[in-house]
Every structure is written in C-alpha cells, then in structure tokens.
Amino acid sequence: MRIAIVLAAFGSRHKNAAASLTHITERVGQAYPDLPVRVAYTSKTIRGHMKKAGEDVDSVPAALDKLLSEGVTHVVIQSLHIIPGTEFHDLLALANEAMLREDGFRRVEVGFPLVAGEAGVEEVADVVLSIARQVKGENDAVLFMGHGTKHDGNVYYEALHRAFQKRDASVHMGAMEAEPGIDAVIERFKADGVKKAHLLPFLFGAGWHAARDMVGDSETSWKTRLGQAGIQCEALLKGAGEYDRLVNIWLTHLHDALKRLNRC
C-alpha cells in the first residue's frame, strides 16, 4: 500500500488567496510528513488563466494520473471547498471512476468539505462565531460573505445563518451568488437598526471575490451597497484557510478519510 494526499481547492489567481492554501498545505505536511501531498485546482477557468500567465496547475485528474504513474495505490482527495456543492460531488464521481479503471487505484477516498452534515454546521458555526466576537463592537453586526451556489448544497449557507442567529443575533451569513443575498441582508440590518457592520469573507481564500465583490469600489460590491444604505463598514480580508480552528476541521475530515482508506 502506497498512500498519497491530493488537496483539491477551487483555486484563485489573487495573491491574497495564496495565504490560505499555503497555510493548510503546511499543516497537512506537518500532520503527515511521510505522505506525498499534491495540490490541484478544480476550476478549469482558474487553471486556464494561470496557464496563460505561465503557471501550470494540475487538475485533480492530472494529479491522480501522476500519482498512479509513481506507483501510488491509495489516495485521499481532500476537498478544500466550503460546502458540499457541485465541485465536491464532482470529486466523488472522479474517485469512483479512478477506482473502476482497470489500471486504476485500489482505493480513493474523498474528505468532506469544511461544512458537512448537521453536526458540521454546528461545529463550524461555533468557530465562526468565535471569529466574529474578536472583531465586533458591542452594538455592531458581523456579516460573512459566502459564495453561494445554484446547487442544493446552498442550504448550508442558510443553515449556518440560522445557527448564528440562535447563538448571536448580530452575526449573519449572506451569499454572493444565491440566497440569502445582499438585498435580504440589508433588509435585516434596516429592521434591526444596524449602523455598523464588519464584513468578512466566508471563502477558502480572500481572493478576487473578497477584493472585488465584497469590498470593491463598484456599485454592486457589498461594502458599497451597505454604505448606500447608511451602514458603516469595516472589512477583514482573511480566508477560512488562514484560521487554525477552521483548518483543524478540514484536518479532521482528512484524518477520517485516511482511516477509511486504511481499513480497506
């Protein structure tokens, strides 16, 4: 049995997003110093942009092919996604295909994304609330911006918001490309009389979405929209992969996947 780990991130070209990937890769290397660790990007668009810029990044299938050629027999693909959306389910299908190939791996396991299942919602909510409490003033609101998705996995953003509200009504979750969107958030804030909000990305890395869609100067950025509604904003551009307590959850998922692998 020869085991390897593939860290599967959506990917980003933004320099600020690199901190999250560097941090979690170092943590995984420290936890499993005897296992080869490879990084792969699941976004074809990001990989294309990086190739044009002269930087090649493997897709997950390419990373798997390389490991197979090196004699690796068992692999864990650890999802670095936030919720189990399209990208995560694509990894499940890929793992199945990699094992069914005649010359494929003996076993491929996929580690859960950050938030998975009802217990996962509660665990992540506790950690995120601890982050919120470090930045907010007594009468301030805290707003986390998630990506959002048309996939059914979007329910996790709504579930996190409910979990926040049970514990602290001043902490909110919003989604950039789905509901609850910024319009719904502004309505909440107006109803609550919010005058100041702290904006934080609920994204793996604080890349383009954080810099452009959350705090950019455009008319549609969340900071602009909140300012137009009379709400003062302060932002902290730090990705989920930069927080040790959130990385610990990913590492638990990786550890569980390796245990499943070793029991085959």
In total, the number of strands is 8
Structural class label? alpha/beta
Integer-rounded radius of gyration:
19 Å
As laid out across the biggest beta sheet, the strand order is 2-1-3-4
Approximate strand percentage: 15-25%
Describe the fold and architecture.
The chain is an alpha/beta fold and 264 residues long. Helices cover 47% and strands 17% of the residues. The protein contains 10 helices and 8 strands. The protein has helices at residues 18-31, 44-52, 60-69, 86-100, 117-135, 155-167, 182-192, 208-214, 222-228, 244-262, and strands at residues 3-9, 37-41, 74-79, 107-111, 141-146, 171-175, 196-201, 232-235. The strands form 2 sheets. It has a 4-stranded parallel sheet with strand order 2-1-3-4, sandwiched between helices. α5 (117-135) packs across α6 (155-167). The longest helix is centred in the middle third of the chain and has 19 residues, at 117-135. It is elongated, with a radius of gyration of 19 Å. The N and C termini lie close together (10 Å).
Search tags:
264 residues; 17% strand
Write the layout of secondary structure elements.
Layout: E1 3-9, H1 18-31, E2 37-41, H2 44-52, H3 60-69, E3 74-79, H4 86-100, E4 107-111, H5 117-135, E5 141-146, H6 155-167, E6 171-175, H7 182-192, E7 196-201, H8 208-214, H9 222-228, E8 232-235, H10 244-262
Parallel strand pairs: 1-2, 1-3, 3-4, 5-6, 5-7, 7-8
Helix pairs in contact: 5-6
